Amino acid sequence: MERNIELITIQSIKEFPSIDYISNIPRHKQLRLIFKDSVQHLREDFGSDLKKRFPAFQIAIPTIEHEINICKLITDEEIIANQLFFTRCAKDYRELSTELINLFITNKKVKLNKDFPFLTFNRIKGQRMSRGKVGQWNYFFHGYHCQFQNTKTKQEIEVPFMFGMEFGDLDPYFFSIYIKSTPQYQPLPVEIYDEFADGCRILEVMLKLDLLEKINSSIGNHSGTVIKDREKIQIKVFNPETDFEKRQSKLTRIVQFLKFKKS
Q1: pLDDT of 126
Q2: Which of 72, 88, 111 is the last residue of a domain?
Q3: Domain housing 176
């Protein structure tokens, strides 16, 4: 859902909106402050002060445009009031992710490294089989995820594969897209306007409520966020000295490719 934009042109300090006015803007409104030349030198300092005063707001200070954009993000109160809904979404996300990755493995006859699935999927990225269709889902491998989109409902989900056989890691942007594209959740009990920023707040508050928890991935300096109420899965730490798979021969790669092509 798009926000309505309210424009305020500022030519003097007296025309700066008050703190009370900014704090009370509704979430469906984006406040755009246009700074004229007479006050342009105050723009960055004013924006920096707003960021300190309103940590639960999105304060954008563009480098080129002479403006500041202000949006109120999803609030703690809204997230707490809808914690059961977001808990359900996180559980559903994990369940569907696992279901779809297993569908891909079965459909494409992939021999999966269950200790380190990313080794298997990294070999697929960049090849013809890195995108395609399984069942009613189009898929595309990229980065640390595989995107699935339902061809009928247009539901979208990004399946993470850097956490062993744990596929429930929640990226703030991807989690928001999943929620907004899932037909069963419509209409949403609370609006998500900014997929990334609102998604970050949802995960942050749900962590504070002890409904989500942090987990480490198979590689160093990389962690994720998952639903706490789940069957725990051991995630092994990848050691490049001992855990790299032997490089396949050219013949083996051709045979594997033909298996994908037939599918």
Answers
A1: 80
A2: 72
A3: 79-262
